[in-house]
Design a protein that fits this description.
Helix content: 40-55%
Shape: globular
Strand content: 15-25%
CATH architecture of the largest domain: Alpha-Beta Barrel
Number of domains: 2
Largest sheet: 7 strands, mixed
CATH superfamily of the largest domain: Aldolase class I
CATH topology of the largest domain: TIM Barrel
Number of strands: 9
Order of helices and strands: HEHEHEHHEHEHHEEHEEHHH
Radius of gyration: 19 Å
């Protein structure tokens, strides 16, 4: 069904003359797909969209335990230029507490494997205020991350969702002193990482924002376009939200896909019908 939705998006984009600038495959962990599934999606993207004008192609590899050489090889062959490999923390006891299946050593192995496969634009995510973590523990994780020398680092403030396991157990630590964040940001900047985008999630610890840092020239175009709301985004898949940007104005409209996979599957024809709104928006 995802590929069928991509086919419909491709058809509409072609009819409207929309130019593809970035591809972002994420919002979760696409590499949780098996090798055949991942290849079927990247092959569909290559077959349905002109890629010669694409400036950035990101796949969130996310959890290190979902990566292997074959998946990295599939992504490389597809033309992927940017991936994420997210430690969240380099403390194994904290990873176990938050229900992650990988270890700190597996994060390092996955990163090194991606480097050996030729990926030269890697992002890594860290999370503050994880249950059981401390400011000292977070700085340890940040230093381990900087030792690996990724091209970008995103510092997230833990946001516990209402229905999550953490919400039913320990939840968020007491808010850390502002100096923790100041010291972390200073350490990143001293290593050549500059802040280039930020956003805030509801229920985040201390109501703090998530901040993306990158080395010069490695700022994620997709993240910038999303935060600045300068581009149309045509989304596919469960939970996808298309943002339609008025070509010569500020107006933005949104088209929502059903959030949960069972809704996506059972209401798929409605999802395809909603794509007519894209044509109506541009023909207005």
């Amino acid at each position: 069904m995802l590929i069928k939705e991509l086919e419909e998006i491709s058809k509409i984009a072609s009819e409207l003359g929309l130019k593809l600038e970035t591809i972002y495959f994420g919002g979760g962990t696409p590499t949780s797909l098996n090798e055949a599934q991942l290849k079927s999606v990247t092959d569909a993207v290559a077959a349905l969209f002109p890629l010669e004008g694409v400036r950035e192609y990101t796949i969130e590899a996310g959890r290190p335990d979902t990566l292997n050489e074959e998946k990295l090889r599939i992504m490389k062959a597809a033309g992927v230029t940017r991936i994420s490999i997210n430690p969240q923390t380099f403390k194994d006891e904290i990873l176990r507490k938050i229900g992650r299946c990988h270890t700190a050593a597996e994060t390092i192995d996955a990163f090194n494997m991606a480097r050996q496969m030729g990926f030269d634009n890697i992002n890594m995510d860290l999370i503050t205020n994880l249950p059981g973590d401390t400011p000292e523990g977070f700085m340890f994780s940040l230093n381990k991350t900087m030792e690996l020398n990724p091209e970008s680092v995103t510092v997230h403030s833990l946001a516990v969702k209402r229905s999550s396991a953490l919400a039913r157990t320990e939840g968020i630590n007491a808010e850390w002193e502002p100096s923790v964040y100041e010291n972390a940001y200073k350490a990143l900047e001293e290593k050549g990482y500059n802040p280039y985008y930020l956003y805030r999630q509801s229920k985040s610890a201390g109501n703090r924002e998530n901040t993306g840092f990158s080395k010069e020239g490695f700022e994620s175009l997709y993240n910038i376009y999303m935060m600045e709301e300068t581009h149309t985004v045509l989304a596919a898949g469960a939970g996808g939200v298309s943002r339609l940007k008025e070509p010569n104005g500020e107006f933005i409209d949104r088209i929502f896909n059903f959030k949960y996979p069972y809704e996506y599957v059972s209401n798929f024809e409605e999802i395809l019908r909603r794509k007519d709104k894209i044509k109506a928006f541009y023909e207005f």
